[in-house]
Amino acid sequence: MTENEVLEILLEIKEIQVDRFEVQDRHLHIYCSSVFQEALCPDCLKKRQVVNQTYLRRFRDLPIAGKEVYLHLSQRQFYCPDCGRHFNERFNFVDVKRTMTCRYERHVYECCKASTIQKISAQENLVWQTVNEICQQGARKELAERPVSKVRAVGMDEFAMKKGHRDYATVIVDLERVEIIDILEYREQDKLIEYFKNKGTEWCEGIEVFCSDMWQGFINTAKTVFPHATLVVDRFHFFSYLNKAVDSQRKSLRRQCKDQEEFKRLKWALLKNPENLTPAQKDKLNRAFLQSPELKLIYDHKEKFRAIFNQNLTRKQGEIELNKWMEEAKKMKNKHLNDFLYMLKDWKEYVLNYFIHRFTTSVIEGINNSIKTVKRMSYGFRNFANFKQRVLISFA
Q: How sure is the predictor about 159, in pLDDT bands with cuts at 50, 70 and 90?
């Protein structure tokens, strides 16, 4: 087997044959030509063999043995006497007027999805603008080809575009498939209503479940545009508020008993689920509870509340259990727990809807964390459209 034949096997491009090659320090130049004797006229689709001229075309391909590969193709221009026109032969492995093979552009695009354009530019020895163009083109193509599925359960949450600023964006998620539906650079109620109305009446009427946190703008939007949807307020947001009540009790004890070791470094042991506690944390909790029975009582209420939502209850059963819990919690007459009860009373109906469909926004929280990673990885975006595109392809 000759060296040229070995290169042909490595290239795996059936449309060309290797004529010769040159090896340099970092580059491998492969001179090749078509294996076909004729070409189809794009107008009449007849086979033509009359060559008008030949020119050398160069494009980049996937690396071999760590070297940059450049293909120098002897490309022909044919003449069609029936149509009276000249045409260039075309190949499947490279698009017209492109300087890279299709597979190499795909390789660059896939690298960009997992890294920054700047890093891939340096890694592949390409101009930043070229890598950016490949990334943008690949993203547009991938998103256009993404199948459109019927959405039944929608979740919404906001995230800050810049740390410390109040310029919030909104992420909309298909909760059943855990797929991002869209990312909007606003969270204003009137704009959200207009956005969903533009998706059409059929789309909005097909939504059966809507889940979000306790921001009133999201709830009001869902009431307006999703006539058949059950509105669910995420249970984990309530858990976080109940945890704050428990932590406020801990802080109060720390202020009253500054020198008491039992109440120091206690926060995470109090907020952790009991099944995840270490023996040392369990011992620390027990010593703190001996010093403060009230702290133990509010801690027990927290765990009973969590246990209600971990049971496989109907909405009616959940309402009965939650009402019992609220009555018991009121008897404690704890300021911090009462603040939580006042809030729970206002949102109770939406919280109870969890027992119907059992959707939460926990998957959106995970998505938001990944969005933050994209922001950090790309050192910020000046263009929201580019940022949105990068996030969407990251979850492809």
A: confident
Predicted pLDDT of residue 260: 83
Q: What gap in Å lies between CA 118 and CA 204, rounded to an integer?
A: 41
Query: How far does Cα 312 stand from its chain's mean position?
Result: 30
pLDDT(231) > 90:
yes
- Structure tokens given for 32: 């090749």
Q: 232 vs 264, which has greater pLDDT?
A: 232
Percentage of residues of the chain with pLDDT beyond 70: 97
**DSSP β-bridge partners for residue 168:** 160
- Cβ atoms of residues 98 and 134 within 8 Å: no
Distance between CA atoms of residues 12 and 263, nearest Å:
69
CA-wise closest residue to 170 among 146, 192, 151: 192
- Whether the per-residue pLDDT at 380 is higher than 80: the answer is no
Residue 141, SS3 per DSSP:
helix
pLDDT band at 382 (very low <50, low <70, confident <90, very high): low
Contact at 8 Å (CB) between 184 and 195?
A: yes
Structure letter (DSSP) for residue 211? E
Provide the sign of the torsion angle of the four alpha carbons 304, 155, 205, 215, taken in this order: positive
What DSSP designation does 229 have? P
Phi, psi of 375 (to 5 degrees): -65, -45
What's the CA gap between 231 and 212, in Å, rounded? 8
Count other Cβ atoms within 10 Å, centred on residue 367. Answer: 23
CA Rg value for the chain: 31
Count the Cβ atoms, other than its own, within 10 Å of residue 356.
Answer: 14
372-to-241, 352, 369, 375 alpha-carbon distances in Å:
24, 31, 5, 5
